[in-house]
Amino acid sequence: MRCANRSTFATKLLHWEYWPTWVIYFPVFFYYLFLSIKARSFFFFTATNPEMEMGGLYNCSKYKQLKSIPNTFKPITLYVAANSPWALVQSRIVEKKLDYPLIAKPDRGERGRGVALLRNAKQLAAYLQESRVDFLVQEYIESPFEAGVFYYRLPEEASGAIPSLVVKAFLTVTGDGLSSVEELIFRIPRARLVAKALLNRSDMDASEILPAGTKKILEPIGNHNRGTTFLDGNRLISLELLNFFDALSYQLPNFHYGRFDLKAPSKAAFTNAEGIKILEVNGVNAEPAHIYDPNARFFTGVRTLLRHWQLIYTISLQNRKLGVKPATLKEAWKHFKVWKNRK
């Protein structure tokens, strides 16, 4: 165990994608202060996406954004208020024609916290009982291809751009016919980092021995902090994708900057903008996640984040010329208090 702990520490130390957020954002914070002085507002970023709470920085409703997206381009989604009666939730699932497995996630959650794959009604009932916040129940899209498309459009322009595209590779082990799933997990540095959470899952059989060559997805939730590898997919950016997200952005009121997390039937279908299902929409809190590719360099990532904050500033400046006002200190404080109370 001590050897495993040393190996885990070395993995985190040598790969900046695992470094604490404050380390990565330390230089970005000073640039944000500079931009705030230029904008004469510490909350200038809230004018970037005026219809999203705090521009989508934090405590923003996922359901509010999904409601504006045509049904063709999103999974069936059910909003569940905290403390809803189980009978009501069941009836609405039947009404929506939802089948298990399902995805449950907090409506205002961040970084994959509270996201769960529910395989039956018993698990959903337990999730409902344990949840203290409003949450979403979504159709589980089993398509193997998952990505995040970063998109922005200047208010003064008719068309936007896709400066970042990340492809998500789920945490997977391959059997050798001899080793248990637990042994396979501890052979993979990325899996070791989340081994405790994986092995504590009720649906995980740690003693299972996979036949040679058989692949098993350990974590079906595509979040970096749950073991998913973020791969630079910028080579997949196409005119078809840009046209698709240009059109989609106009469905979202006053949306100009953020990331669309999605699934598609295949890489080829995705590149041609076919069969795309939007799982959620993020605002100014969204990162150009391709920077967390294992081969990416730290300073390249920081420079990318700085460029994106320059974009936020430019968009907010153009929106202010159109009459949009950034949040006041009183409004920002009120939003913060609501967030603290929810937590």
From TrEMBL:
The chain crosses the membrane at residues 18-35. GO terms for molecular function: ATP binding; ligase activity. Keywords: Ligase, Membrane, Transmembrane, Transmembrane helix. This is Tubulin-tyrosine ligase family protein.
